[in-house]
Amino acid sequence: MLKEIVIAIQSYTEAHRFIIKNKLWKWIIIPGLVYSILFVVSMYFFGKSATAVIEYLTHTTGLDGWIQKFRNGFLGFLFAFAGIVLWLILILLYFSLFKYIWLIVGSPIFSYLSEKTQSIIEEKEFTTDFRQLLKDAVRGTRLSLRNMLWQTVYSISLLLLSLFPVIGWVTPLIALAVECYYYGFSMMDYSCERQKLSASQSVEFITKHKGLAIGNGLVFYLMHVAILVGWVLAPAYAVIAATLSLYKVKD
Hints:
The chain is mostly helical and 251 residues long. It has one domain (2-246). The chain is built from ten helices and no strands. Helix 2 (26-61) packs across helix 10 (229-246) and helix 7 (171-194) crosses helix 8 (199-208).
């Protein structure tokens, strides 16, 4: 799996060269700007709501009064750190829901980019088949809803685990790995669909190559560290990198 994670990470560099060589910037910038605007607005409200949820839980359960009653610095530190972990988990949960909305909305563009990438690699004439794009978009939407359901189940389980000091401290890392996997999964499925794999076969194939999915999603999230530029480039780079990476592990 580690080898596939490395392949997925390297594919982003190849995607960058691929985009420059084939002048695909218009399919990168416009969707990226829309994504960036939605991302900023969503994260602002997500951050406020996550803080409100934590404050509500501490007041409702009486944890804040209980901690003040004991006046134990170490105990206060444990629960303060647990609060930070809970906030991170909530933000990841909110972001995963936003991600699936974006995947559904952007599905036709992602499908187009993936298909165009394949046609360039295989040196085939690219013709836009709107019926096929619509079919790919519907499939992508169905799998996004399926993944959203499973990821929500995992996220809620991790959310409950994060309430426990010490044990719950590792939950953000687990949540991030799950988040990366499911995003990379969606990016890889566009190629799987063109290989005539059914939804169940696609799930089986990507599960077998989960390192590619995790690596793809990991770089996608790391790109968000580069404010604005990374936000604009991340979505389209992810789908092109996923398409390129699959050529290295084709069964």
